[in-house]
Every structure is written in C-alpha cells, then in structure tokens.
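Module 6 notes. Inverse folding takes a fixed backbone as the condition and produces residue identities as the prediction. Think of it as a translation problem where the source language is geometry and the target language is the twenty amino acids. Below is one complete input and output pair. Work through it position by position during the lab.
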C-alpha cells in the first residue's frame, strides 16, 4: 500500500517518512507549488487557444543535471498550500478558460493529487486531468491514479542506461520509463479528441533531443512505433537549453539544427499518425516559466 509514512511513490523508493522529513524528491507531505497559470506553449491539442491550466509542483524525483526548472525541481522554490487551496486553484483555472488541469512534476504528490481531484470532481469540476511527468514512474503509483488521470504527458528521455545514469543518476530509467509508458497506455487508451481537436484522453510522449543523443531519440521513436503504433501521440522537442553550472561539454550548447532535422526526418519515415515538432528558436531561457512571479 502506498503512503507517506515510508514513501515509495517513485522508483527511487527512498522510504522517507514524509510526515516528518523530506524524501529524495526534496519535499515533505505538505503540497508545495511554484506557479499556477494558463500556459500556451504545450502541444496544440493541450494548449489550444485558451491555454492549459498548469500547476508546477516543487521538488522532483528524477533530478536531471540539465533541468530548465531547476529553481523549483532542485532548489525547492515555491509556496506551501493546503489541499483545499489546490482544489480552489483547479476551479480558478477552469474559470479562466483552461482546456485542462496540467500537473507538472506531480509524482511525489500523487496521493494528495488523487484526493484533490476527487474533491474537484465531487464539487462539479469538469476539466480533464493531465499528468505531466518525467516518465520515471512506478506501476503501483500509476495504478493508484486509475480514476484520477485522463491524459498522460510523459517524457522518454534515454535509451541507454549509461546516459540515464550520467545525466539523471537513474541507470534504470530506460526500463522503468518503458514499463510505465505501457501502463499509461493501458490505463487511458488511445487518443480521444473533441470536435475542436483538443485532447480529452490519451498519452503524449515527449522526446527532448539532447545534444549528442539524437541516436537514442531515434531508437526510442522506433520502439514507440513498433510497440504502440497509432495509440499514442509523440512530440519531438528541440528546446534543450543549457542552464546551470557544471554541465558536461556535450551539453554546454543547444542542439544543432541539423541534428534535430535528422531525428524529425526519421520520425516522418515511421509515419506516426499523431506527431508534433517544434519550429523556430525555442532553446532560449525566455521560454522557461518565470518562477519569481507569484501566480496563485
């Protein structure tokens, strides 16, 4: 049974008593968020015209060395709120016209989220719930969210254990993320869109192409097509932005455009039914949300 007395929500299974101490995610039991606002830069069937109602949770169970949101994921910036306040934020975002409730880095708060969504639904909340994750998830945690989550927006970061260990200190990431993705598809099924093309249920898999790792992105694309066919959406991202100190040489500059085109061309050859790419200059710090501005 999952609980916070001996936390094993994420694959790190640190066993912390989060009622009293922080887990490896950096967070205790109390919900802590850094931003709650409409977000217009997700994939088209998620952001639409009115924006995605996005809530950024503080802390992270993965901890990639290149994280763009390091202020909240690594340093824990944010404000503690109650469960009731989280439910109220869901309704605030719904009133603002959000297409969905987008929960970013939610894994370590999965149990609180389950309770909050139940409260939101009981009070008449209608928006789809989107779980925006690194992909580093336990099957047991996903199963606990069976009646909670409508849409999974998940990363598939690496194919090789050595890369996962070097950049995220998680050598088991490739195996764990693939198993988790299969469970997500099993739980919510193939994409379901409304008459406006907005996603109501399904799985979107993001592949952030890292400099020097485009071959791993292509290996993952091949596996996705062979394993899931057209029952998922894929999003190929070129927005890697080198931020922070101590990055290895290969991650010290943005992804070369030619490398991104190679991955996109390969994805086109696989003929995905649902696939999204990024155009223009997205590898800029101006695309990183402002966590200094309080939005809730």
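Target side of the pair, the amino acids:
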């Amino acid at each position: 049974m999952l609980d916070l007395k001996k936390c094993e929500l994420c694959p790190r299974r640190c066993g912390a008593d989060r009622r009293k101490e922080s887990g490896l995610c950096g967070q205790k039991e109390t919900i802590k968020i850094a931003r709650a606002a409409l977000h217009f830069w997700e994939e088209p069937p998620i952001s639409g015209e009115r924006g995605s109602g996005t809530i950024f949770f503080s802390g992270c169970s993965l901890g990639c060395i290149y994280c763009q949101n390091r202020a909240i994921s690594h340093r824990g910036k944010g404000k503690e709120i109650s469960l009731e306040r989280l439910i109220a934020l869901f309704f605030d975002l719904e009133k603002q016209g959000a297409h969905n409730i987008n929960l970013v880095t939610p894994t370590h708060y999965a149990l609180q989220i389950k309770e909050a969504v139940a409260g939101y639904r009981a009070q008449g909340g209608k928006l789809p719930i989107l779980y925006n994750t690194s992909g580093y998830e336990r099957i047991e945690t996903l199963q606990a969210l069976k009646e909670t989550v409508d849409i999974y927006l998940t990363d598939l970061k690496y194919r090789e254990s050595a890369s996962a260990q070097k950049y995220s200190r998680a050598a088991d990431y490739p195996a764990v993320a693939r198993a988790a993705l299969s469970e997500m598809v099993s739980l919510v099924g193939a994409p379901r869109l409304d008459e406006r093309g907005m996603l109501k249920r399904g799985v979107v898999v993001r592949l952030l192409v890292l400099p020097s790792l485009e071959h791993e992105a292509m290996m993952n694309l091949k596996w996705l097509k062979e394993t899931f066919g057209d029952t998922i959406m894929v999003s190929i991202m070129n927005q890697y932005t080198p931020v922070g100190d101590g990055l290895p040489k290969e991650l010290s500059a943005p992804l070369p455009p030619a490398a991104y085109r190679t991955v996109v061309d390969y994805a086109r050859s696989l003929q995905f039914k649902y696939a999204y790419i990024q155009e223009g200059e997205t590898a800029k710090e101006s695309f990183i949300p402002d966590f200094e501005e309080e939005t809730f």
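Reference fact for the lab report: Residues 168 and 221 are 20 Å apart (CA to CA).
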